[in-house]
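Protocol step 4 of 5: obtain the predicted structure for the target chain.
Materials: sequence only (see below). No template structures provided, no constraints applied. The aim of this step is simply to have a reference model before the mutagenesis design in step 5. Sequence pasted as it appears in the construct record:
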Amino acid sequence: MQWRIIGTEIWDAYMNMALDEACMEAVGKSESPPTVRFYEWSPSAVVIGYFQKVHNEIDVELCKQLGIDVVRRTSGGGAMYLDTKGEITYSFITPQHMLPNDVNECYRKVCQHIIDALSDIGIKSEFKPINDITINGKKVSGNALTRSNGATMVHGTLLYDLNLRNMFKVLRVSGEKVSDKFIEKAEERVTCVKHNAQVTKDDTKKALIEAFSSDKDAVHDKWTEQELKRARQLAEHKYKTQEWIYRR
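Step 4 output (structure tokens):
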């Protein structure tokens, strides 16, 4: 089966979420082939999991002051700060039958591509169940999964650079202020590509695209007009709406 590779695009948070959903609909109906897309965020964004409550997870007013988008995704998991300069994000979208039913194995299969990409740029990493990738025990990639419209999507982010101070300004940190000591503790748990290899962000993106493409009959392509039209509808009438963002 032929795959479609789309990379690398820059959208705001609402279109990034909407393109994922539009693609899932098209792939589930066999109107589009299985797709891997790579994308970045402009402006920076906080994306909360489907089951989370906005005000429990993030400082909404500070996000507004800093011009940071706030959006809810369709998959579960925790809130993520996605920095314009620091993140490379991917979505891996297939018909449901093409990925294992077991969630852990599904994550393991997809995350292996990221492990291979990191290996190609000289970084040894490993899969940490249920949905993380680590370097020397420090998290460098987090992932989430959703199934709907006859399709499965695993999407996640790879930290190229790291700005923990900005991250913890907007994410609510229970019981602790964002101090130098707190940042030092966080740096013991989280890392990024830039701290582990002298490699550019562009070269990291190239390695990711190659790793996700190498085991497939893949073509570099673009969105269909129907997918873009549907994504714009979803962005305006779903992902940007107060009803969706503050549904919990």
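Step 4 remarks: The first strand starts at residue 2 and ends at 11. Residues 74 and 238 are 11 Å apart (CA to CA).
Proceed to step 5.
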